[in-house]
Amino acid sequence: MGKKLYVLVLLFILSLNLIPTQSIAAEKNVKVQLPKFTVTLNGNVVENEYREYPLLVYKNITYFPMTWYDCRLLGLETKWSQNEGFEIYESKVTSSYVSYKTQLKNQDAYNATIPEFKIKINGKSINNAKEEYPFLVFRDVTYFPLTWKIAHDEFNWDYKWDNAEGLMINSKNPQLETLNLSRDVSENGIMLFEGYYYFVETVEATNEIYRVPKNNILEKELVYSYDLNDSYGFNNRVSFDIRDNELWFSYHYGGAVMGYDVYCKVNDDGRATVEYRGYLDLKKVSNGTLIINQSVPPDGNNLEFLPSDKNQESRRLGDSNLIYGWHIEIDEQTSGFNGNNMTTVIEENVYIMASSYPLENGDLNKIYNINLITNEIARVVDSSVNWFKIIEGKIYYIKDFDEDLYVANLDGTNEQKIIDIELPTTIEWFDIINHNPFYLVEDEEKQFYLYKVEECGEDTLVLKESIERIKVVNNKLVCKLAEGKDYGLKIFDDEGNINLAITDQVEDIFTYEDRIIMTMKDGSIKLLKIE
Questions:
Q1: Would you indicate the residue range of the signal peptide (predicted)?
Q2: Cα distance between residue 387 and residue 429, in whole Å
Q3: Is 189 domain-assigned?
Q4: Smallest Cα–Cα separation from 326: which of 345, 353, 301?
Q5: Which of 72, 189, 235, 433 could form a disulfide with 494 if both were Cys (CB 3.0 to 4.6 A apart)?
Q6: Quick one: 410 and 300 in the same domain?
């Protein structure tokens, strides 16, 4: 019996030796090489020599690493689950190019693995074991073959080979353009206006404001400069603003009480002039400027009309017994003042928040209409409000006592509650995009979330991530997300559907017409055109 068992074991070992070991290895591991030609992805040359996840070549086909940033650069997203395996699909995403550069130089050749997990491309199952050019795994990252079938037919990429320039891949998703401007811009601000970028450079104790043509950023022109006052701390911040198709900027000089803001206008020749000093809210009106004085300490009778004609004298507007442009809170011991810029001018009518002065608790924060020509004044909303906005011929406002959103005609009639919020949640922003109302709420944890108003049923939460800033550009909602999320910026259409998600971590956003300029956490500056 022992001899028979020994013979059977020996025969089994010999039979294993007859199986070609190379074919077994081919099912699991394959030899891959780094490409010896140039590969360009959306204009970015891939430097493979020190790349953690280099492009690979197997069977004379280039393989692409499906890293987080590489996928999104080309408009792709991936999903993994134990049951469904690996999925790759087109998506409304984009990213700046990330080099994945390391200090270690890559070898010319490596081993990669043919995975056995399920794979889907745009929802279609792939039998990887039968593919001539299978998916591979290298350094724990899945790679797919850049065949015509996948790159062109599935992902609709432009796919081109040139003997001199190598392999060029261009995807159809929106791309971020890098603006090679001063790194001071990432700390200070930037504006695109009528074909020029305007930005600030701080040189020792001087702020210098420049402009460059958007098509030639090397042609730098000085717009304005001023000396910084460091007596109250170093403040080099400049804020740009477009008002009635004119470019303005402002900066602070001095301390909080004894100092003041300086308001400058950029003229047609590209040079800026100082127009006003103080703490002011400025509104352009017919034949002049409406000035709401928000100096500290606040005082009443602070509404003034300044004619465009320098030969005419300025004049006070409104009721001298009111204080304008402040939201005021009073308790038994203190009074709190919060300046606002909600004042809206429609033809000859000014809609403005005002309170009785001297202050009388119970007659605060009402909305008034003042006629610029006759100076007739009428109270539009008789409740205390903390915010208002005029949209499409209606006035929207939030009442102080319940923090709910109301709408009424411009004369205050036909008041209706449209958003009922449960305290302590509060509404922090509201707008209507192509007849679709959206609002931003702040919860108990100081997180901000975007909702869309629905005619029937509960309002829709547009996205789960908390928002730090929101702007409307070209009928799109541009949302800067809280730091540390998978995406730094998300853009939604007027229905609340995702239009684009950007991976880059964004510091600040500036908008002009259909363009978004982003200063990034890494100090770079990016430009995106909204389609």
A1: 1-25
A2: 9
A3: yes
A4: 353
A5: 433
A6: yes
Q: Which of 5-9, 156-160, 380-384 has the lowest mean pLDDT?
A: 5-9
Name the residue among 374, 372, 429, 425 with its Cα closest to residue 396: 429
Question: In this structure, is residue 7 part of a structural domain?
Answer: no
Q: Are 304 and 364 in contact (CB under 8 A)?
A: no
| Owner of token pair 């300025």 | 314
What does 454-518 look like in DSSP terms, one character per residue? -SSSSPEE--SS-EEEEEEETTEEEEEEPTTSS-SEEEE-TTS-EEEEE-SPEEEEEEETTEEEE
How many residues does the structure list for the chain? 531
Bridge partners for 398 per DSSP: 387, 405
Query: Whole domain around residue 392: which residue ranges?
Result: 291-420
- The number of beta carbons lying within 10 Å of the beta carbon of residue 330 is 15
Give ∠ CA 76-81-84 in degrees, rounded to 5.
90
Q: Encoding tokens for residue 494? A: 């007027």
The answer to whether residues 101 and 154 belong to one domain is: yes
Over range 343-348, report the average pLDDT.
96
- pTM to 2 decimal places: 0.89
Please state the φ and ψ torsions of residue 187, each to the nearest 5 degrees: -100, -15
* Beta-carbon contacts of residue 257 (< 8 Å; ≥ 6 apart): 296
State the total domains in the chain: 4
Share of the chain above pLDDT 90, in %: 80
Q: Is 164 left (phi over 0), alpha (psi -120 to 50) or beta?
A: alpha
Closest CA to 162 of 39, 61, 46, 70: 39
